[in-house]
Amino acid sequence: MQQLIIKKFISILFISLLFYSCNSIDPIELNEFQMNFNKWKSHDITSYTITLKISCFCISTDPIDIKVENNQIIEINSAPVTSEQLNNEYWYAKTIDELFIFIDEEIKKEPFQQVLEFNETYGFPEYIYFNREEMLVDEEIGYTISSFNID
Q1: Using only C-alpha atoms, what is the Rg of the chain?
Q2: I need a labelling partner for 95 at 20 to 30 A (CA). Which of 31, 85, 105, 145 fits?
Q3: Tens-digit pLDDT profile for the chain (151 aa)?
């Protein structure tokens, strides 16, 4: 069910990006996002492992190793993971498709600052950073993927 929802959202995301107004976003960054999203989808990779680190003023977290099968997180740090754990203990764990959704949602909020870096070969995001408000502290959030292996 969750996989179907993600597929539908990604399809809608792609279509909306085609028609999205660029007046509030740097067109170069939007094009970079679209280009890399399309590159990622063209590889049709649904099973892989990544090491993901979140950076925020939230609880301290170490990088986690995430195993994804059929676009679903099945293990974290080599241990099976439940949906309850993903909603609580590992709330920040995301598949690459979910990271693209996160990026799209944050861009639409028109953040004060954003930094996006993508893998040249596969197009997945390697570094994501959003500073949502210029005058606020502690609301910044970032993700780093430090390894990627196709399973």
Answers
A1: 15
A2: 31
A3: 555 555 555 555 555 544 444 444 455 455 888 999 999 999 999 999 999 998 766 666 789 999 999 999 999 999 999 999 999 999 899 999 999 999 898 888 877 788 899 999 999 999 988 886 665 555 567 889 999 999 8
CA-based torsion, 90, 80, 148, 51: positive or negative = positive
Q: Which two tokens stand for residue 64?
A: 């986690």
The residue ranges of every structural domain in the chain are 2-150
What span, in angstroms and rounded, lies between the C-alpha atoms of 46 and 43?
9
Chain centre distance of CA 9: 13
For residue 33, the number of C-alpha atoms closer than 13 Å in the C-beta half-sphere is 28
Residue tagged 């970032």 (tokens): 142
Is residue 5 classed exposed, middle or buried when 0-12, 13-18 and 19+ CB atoms within 10 A define those classes? Answer: exposed
User: Which residues, 6 or more positions from 5, have their beta carbon under 8 angstroms from its beta carbon?
Assistant: none
Please list the alpha-helical segments (H only) found in the chain.
2-19, 27-43, 83-87, 96-108
Q: Which two tokens stand for residue 24?
A: 């509030």
